[in-house]
Structures are given as structure tokens and as C-alpha cells.
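Schema walk-through. Below, the input block comes first and the output block second. Nothing else is stored per chain. Lengths vary across the set, and this one has 526 residues.
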Amino acid sequence: MSQEEIPVVIVGGSLVGLTTAMLLGWHGIPSLAVERHAGTAIHARAGHFQLGTTEMLRQVGLEDTVREASLRTYHPTGGIVSVESLAGEERATYVKELNEGVEGFSPARRVFVNQDALEPILRERATELGASVVNRTEAVGIEEDADGATVTLRDLDTGGERTVRARYVVAADGNRSPTRARLGVAMDGHRDLSRSITIYFRADCAPLLRDRNQGVIYVHNDALRGFFRLDRTLGTGFLVINSVGEDVTRPEAVSVSEGMTEERAHALLQAAIGTPDIPAEILQIVHWRAEATVATRMRVGRVFLAGDAAHVVPPNGGFGGNMGILDARNLGWKLAAVLSGEAGPALLDTYEEERLPLARLVVEQAYNRYATRVVPERGTDDVQPFVDDLTIEIGLVARSRAVVDDGEEDAGALHLPPAETRGRPGTRAPHVALGPDRSTLDLCGRSFVLLRPAGAGANGWAPPGVEVHAIEADGFADAYGISAQGASLVRPDGVVGWRSRGPFDRGELESALASILARDYATAAA
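--- output ---
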């Protein structure tokens, strides 16, 4: 066997693995992503990308490219509604317009873009930034020691094996993660919600939808429960079916995929369209299980779980892909800081500290949307209270040793309304407009940044690795919860790590940065 060395091996080269590779490259760290499939995604899969994702894409220079890909396929202002069928009456409106309420909170916008269109964009950017991506290759073993991990890779075409030495491993190998299984990490939550199918089809639905603001269209009738996603031509798309029959309380109602034939699928598709006057051609039927579960751990030694390997959700709410991308955004800069020697290895403990409680929260919110929108008759007693989408996107609160608390009394809340975060440590840095299509968020993303009101004094000084920006925009100090003499220290992932509401000295800032970077903790071997 031959052996090579790379700082990080990423097991899985799909959405989350490619994002991780890209962000490591963005921070100057080479990586190797291995993917068992022959290329990037061939199905739409994740398609609703929220502000945490689009803000990250903006910072790495992909916002316009992704928006163009979105516009080629979907209408930019689609909403989320429920109908009896495409030909039938509208039952409910969940979201009037995809970006309703976003203006003023972010310089970016949510987008509908299929995963099969997004992944090639991420892969190209990742390789531009120094990552290697290898297909038809799987990781068949990971052996750790005091200095790193030896990963055994198998070429699925030749059967040949080789080993790679890495400092750390990221497992982004999907909901059936072999890596997670080998590590013995269990999953908790709501299992076997349904044995669902996705029908990819071709049908001219335009006559039924010309006057309807379509984005995601839930279908609720006596034949089935599920939802449509149609491209902007209204001629192709897919239908997800989570239950069949009028009485969804029956166990067999949610066992959709069992014994499914193309003839039966075609009948269900026609029932969802709602008229026999529009013929439909089935292109493919994909079988899958809906669940809302989260791993009991997100780190085992030198291996970190990310994306579906760490949490699995039903598609309702569009949280799955976004959660995985936020995993990558949280982990990428931390791995880079440790590998470059800027931070102590204990910083990596904060990945699980921060992401696992938030993963549990968001998994429960996905379950809320599945239970209340798709099969409410099956019971909602175990459903946690609804948290609005904007709060889930930009109102979550990270709590760990990489956040210096400043005494806000919020009883350990994991989410706050975005209008109320006001730059408190652990929350996403607020958007403040700095001019046409320019935001305080555009100053963040690659390094730590210290944001201060213009005229606060000592604006040019900062510890190594910290950029200082004097902000002249009206409302900046109030948005960040500081005085004219205060400052906010924003981490590379856009989270406020520390702030001083009033005057501070050099020692306070240096101490805060050292604390965030785990320089003052006893650490194990790097």
C-alpha cells in the first residue's frame, strides 16, 4: 500500500463534504474529500437554502453564481402553500414569499436551487482553493494514534487500497454513515416517520399554476400527503409522498414505499395533479425513510460528524442541507486555527459543544413541520413549540468556551428573535448596511474582525490575526449593543465571540481572543 499525508480527510464528497473542503481551503488548509459515487449529486435532493448558507456563499464569492443557477430552474419569489391538488383549491399558506421579512436582516437572500446544480459549483470552488476530491473511493478504516489518524481508502473500481495520514477526519458520509457506525455513535429522536418515495416526473402543469405563487406545494387529499417542487417551466419536477390513503393513523398509511409499483406511483401522481387531462411521465422513483434524529455525539477523538451523518431530518422546512453547511462553517475555521497553530486543540471541543444542542433544536423544528403540516392526525403531543424560520436561520445562540459571555440574562436560550440578538456573544453578527450592496457581514469570513464605531480611538491596533474596521454607518453601535467606545470581536464563522459594551483596554481584548482560541486551557496533543 502507498501512503500520503494531508491535514484533513473528508469522508463524503457531496453537499456537506464539498462545503467543508471549500471552507478549509478558504482558510488555507488542504484537504482530501473521498466520495463513493461517480460524481456529484444526480437528484435534486436539498433545494431550499437559507440565510446562513447564502451568507456563507456570498463571503466565498459564490452568491451570484448560485443565484444564476437558481434562476435557471426556479422562480425567485415562490412561496410555500398547501393545496388539495394542483387542480384543486388552496388550503393554507405557510410562507407567502420565499424572502418575505428578510430585508433589513441580511444582505443575502434565500434561494431555491437543486443540490445537483449546487454541488458542481462547490466542487469547482473547493478545488480552486486547494482541495482534492476523489470519486469512486470509500474509507474502509480509520485508525487513530497520538499524532493523527491513518485512513484506509478503497478504490471501488479496482479494489485497490491505500492509506492516508491525516491530523483530523470529517465524516460527512450521509444518513447511513458507515463512519458513524464504526465509531459506535447512536442516533436519538423520531425514527421511521414514514417510508416515503420521491417521484421524478415530466408533465405540463403550467395551465394549473400560472396564477399561483409556487415554490413548495404541499398536497393534502384522500389519496396522499406530500409535496411538489416544480421547475419554472412547470413541466418537470418531483413529488414527495409521505403517506397514502384517507386515514393516515393506520401504520400502512406511512409505509408508502412497500410494494410500490410504477403503476401505483402513476396513479398517486395523477391524484396529486388532480386531473386526468394532464398526462404525466414518470422518470424515476426513489425510496427513502423519513426520520428526525440526531447523533448522541458529534466528535469521537479525531473524527467529527457533520451533515446527515450527525443529524437527519424530514425535508419539511428545508433544514437538512442548511444544518450540514452550518456544521462545516463552524468546524472549518476551528480546524484551520488548530492546524495552523493559532489555537489550542481544545478549540475543537467547542464544535460539539455548540452544534449538538442546536442540531437537537433544529431536528425538533423539522419534526414540528412534518407532524403539523403532513400528518397532524397521527398526533402532535410530542411536538415542540414552533420557532419561525428566520429565527432558526439567524437567531440561534452558540454556547461554548469559544464564546466569552458578557452577562446577558437569557437563561441559556438557544434561540432569540433576530431583532433582539443585538450582537450578544454567541449570536450571528448583525447585518448593518455600509452602502449599496455592502454589509458589515462582508467584512467577516476569513479571519477574526474587530468592529468599532468610527472615532472610538485606537482603531488601527489589534492582536495578530485580527482585522480592525471602524464603522461609520448609522445605527451600527445600537445594532451591536455597544456604546461609541465599545467593540465587537467576530469569529471567522460570523458569530460574535466577545464584545465590550464600553471602553476596554488592550489586555481585555487579548485575553478574550486567547480564551476563544483555547490558548489558556490545558490541551492534549495536537
